[in-house]
Amino acid sequence: MKNAFKVLFIVFISAVVYFFSIKKDKMNESGLLNIEALASPENNTYKCIGIGSIDCPLDHVKVYQIE
Asked: Whole-model pTM?
């Protein structure tokens, strides 16, 4: 009986340690927007040309080329 409690205690502690050791790599939307804001240059001298598959940084529409 005493050994069964020891085994259950070890299993319980192992489960708790495993649960808290899992890293959550989910980033929320505001974190992604902050990263995008830090990565963009400060001068906004973009010229978006045409219609394509690239996001224009000025108005976030799909364009062919950014100059």
From this structure: 0.36
* Residue 43 neighbours by CB distance under 10 Å: 6
66 burial (CB, 10 Å; 0-12 / 13-18 / 19+) is: middle
Listing DSSP states for 38-66 in one string gives: HHS-S-----EEEEEEEEPTTT--EEEEE
Q: Name the token pair of 2.
A: 């005493």
Which whole number is the average pLDDT over 24-35?
Answer: 72
Question: How far is the C-alpha of 8 from the C-alpha of 14, rounded, in Å?
Answer: 10
State both tokens at 35.
Answer: 């990263």
